[in-house]
Amino acid sequence: MKRKVMKWLFALCVPVFIIGMILRDDCVIPVDGATPKDWNPQSFWYTPWGRSGVHKGIDIFAKNGTPVLSSTKGLVLYSGPYGMGGNVVWVLGPKWRLHYYAHLSDSSVSAFKLVHIGAPIGRVGSSGNAAGKPPHLHYAIRSLIPLPWLATTQVQGWYRMFFIDPNTRLRVGLSST
Length: 177
Ligand SMILES: [Zn+2]
Known about the structure:
Elements: H1 2-22, E1 46-49, E2 53-55, E3 58-61, E4 67-69, E5 74-81, E6 87-93, E7 97-107, E8 114-115, E9 120-124, E10 136-143, E11 163-164, H2 166-175
Antiparallel strand pairs: 1-2, 3-10, 4-9, 5-6, 5-8, 6-7, 7-9, 7-10, 10-11
Zinc ion binds near residues 55 and 138.
């Protein structure tokens, strides 16, 4: 009986996994009106960086209250306070990638809602450990599937197989639109 259940679960997981992988992964810059000039391309994997050691995303600077947009279509997994990130939103997007939006002044989506690409999910702020710093969106893309070819010999370089460089990702997005 138990084996049968496992078999069914497996039969269900495989198509769900495949659907996730084949969804188109279009993306937009997740701050309304922002251009690549609003972040430093060198800031991804910058070290030393506070308590986390390495900066695993980019910081897109904008005025306090500027709308933060979902960079992809996806499913909101979490929206609310989250440690050093302050007010954050986690969105599960195509290809089993988690998109992380941090230091928001507030978020305007709730968990388990589907969002479109470019949909407003909150506003730029300086919550969490960005308190006292110029308002910015910390944006990171985590891959749930290890991508070993992204690993490097940098500090925490092995861990890079779980992180997409948002900088290149967003530039690709720009050139294809
Ligand atoms: Zn940051």
